[in-house]
């Protein structure tokens, strides 16, 4: 069991929950403003679904990189993968991926049934298709003959699924509507998710080059990938400020939602620390830190919008 828990990579889970928390509690605030109701059961199921997707993705990445030999020389003891190290066989991991795919689909259908059935049948089937796309994306990063992670497309997929789909999709589950201002927080969460992936790929840049895994960080080179990383860590807090300003909280004399701006200081600190890194392997601790900051951004936004007004 210990090896399976390590393969699940629990430190990635806060990041995966961030978009759901962000979208769900923006929906809660907006529904309360308009006299609507917010269903905590939808939120709980949405969290379960995204956690299943994340663990599925981690297992699939472990399996895909393991059978391709990419993890053979991975940097850092904490990043030894289960299949590559022989702790879990490729067959066992493949079976786990299949099982988690089935469980993810069942949980997705249960969530969508609760959110849409019977009043919104069309939306139910659209989101079922979107859920299947999420499952395929979780698997396809490293698995298959042409995994998109090996072609430098991981950043785009992470932005779409961790940012746009997670935030806007969870908002839609509650409100059955879309609002353009959601693109501010959705882009913020998406960019921070890209920042975590880019840190991961910068850390593994030497090993990935040897294995033929052409990530965006490898294509850019370490120095340019560092510039890209700083941009990804700079813009999200500004996007959150734009979201709050767009909704006119300052004009209404409501300042509690701006509590999220306190994260300016830890973001400044982590950017300086990352810029000081010269060796790729020294980037590993920052993956967890950026993930936690993303989670805090979602939680502080939720509290600021809903519990301090």
Automatic annotation (TrEMBL):
Enzyme Commission number(s) of this protein: 2.5.1.74
Biological process annotations from GO: menaquinone biosynthetic process; vitamin K biosynthetic process
Gene Ontology CC annotation, any one: plasma membrane
The protein's matches in CDD domains, at most eight in alphabetical order, are given as: PT_UbiA_UBIAD1
Keywords, comma-separated and alphabetical: Cell membrane, Membrane, Menaquinone biosynthesis, Transferase, Transmembrane, Transmembrane helix
Q: Report the transmembrane regions from the record.
A: 12-32, 38-56, 97-118, 124-144, 156-174, 220-247, 253-270, 290-308
Annotated metabolic or biological route of this protein: Quinol/quinone metabolism; menaquinone biosynthesis; menaquinol from 1,4-dihydroxy-2-naphthoate: step 1/2
Enzymatic reactions: an all-trans-polyprenyl diphosphate + 1,4-dihydroxy-2-naphthoate + H(+) = a 2-demethylmenaquinol + CO2 + diphosphate
Name the major location.
membrane
The protein's name: 1,4-dihydroxy-2-naphthoate octaprenyltransferase
Q: Which family does it belong to?
A: Belongs to the MenA family. Type 1 subfamily.
Function (record text): Conversion of 1,4-dihydroxy-2-naphthoate (DHNA) to demethylmenaquinone (DMK).
Q: Describe its membrane topology.
A: Multi-pass membrane protein
Q: Could you name the domain of life of the organism this protein comes from?
A: Bacteria
The protein's enzyme class:
transferase
Instruction: Return one GO MF term.
Output: 1,4-dihydroxy-2-naphthoate polyprenyltransferase activity
InterPro entries given in the database record: MenA, UbiA_prenyltransferase, UbiA_sf, UBIAD1
**Where does the record place it?**
Cell membrane; Membrane
């Amino acid at each position: 069991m210990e090896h399976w828990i390590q393969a699940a990579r629990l430190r990635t889970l806060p990041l995966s929950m961030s978009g759901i928390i962000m979208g769900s509690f923006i929906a809660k605030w907006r529904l309360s403003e308009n006299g609507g109701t917010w269903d905590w059961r939808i939120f709980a199921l949405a969290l379960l679904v995204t956690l299943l997707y994340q663990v599925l993705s981690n297992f699939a990445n472990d399996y895909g990189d393991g059978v391709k030999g990419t993890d053979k020389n991975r940097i850092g003891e904490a990043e030894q993968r289960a299949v590559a190290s022989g702790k879990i066989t490729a067959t066992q991991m493949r079976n786990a991926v299949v099982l988690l795919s089935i469980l993810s689909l069942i949980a997705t259908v249960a969530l969508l049934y609760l959110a849409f059935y019977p009043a919104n049948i069309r939306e139910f089937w659209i989101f079922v298709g979107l859920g299947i796309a999420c499952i395929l994306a979780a698997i396809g990063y490293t698995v298959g003959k042409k995994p998109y992670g090996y072609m430098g497309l991981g950043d785009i997929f992470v932005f779409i699924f961790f940012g746009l789909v997670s935030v806007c999709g969870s908002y839609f589950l509650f409100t059955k509507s879309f609002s353009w201002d959601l693109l501010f927080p959705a882009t913020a969460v998406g960019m921070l998710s890209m920042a975590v992936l880019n840190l991961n790929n910068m850390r593994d840049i030497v090993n990935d080059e040897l294995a033929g895994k052409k990530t965006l960080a490898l294509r850019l080179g370490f120095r340019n990938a560092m510039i890209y990383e700083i941009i990804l860590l700079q813009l999200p807090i500004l996007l959150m400020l734009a979201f709050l300003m767009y909704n006119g909280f300052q004009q209404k004399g409501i300042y509690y939602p701006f509590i999220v701006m306190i994260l300016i200081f830890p973001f400044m600190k982590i950017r300086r620390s990352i810029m000081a890194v010269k060796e790729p392997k020294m980037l590993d601790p920052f993956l967890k830190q950026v993930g936690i900051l993303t989670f805090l951004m979602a939680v502080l936004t939720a509290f600021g919008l809903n519990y301090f007004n």
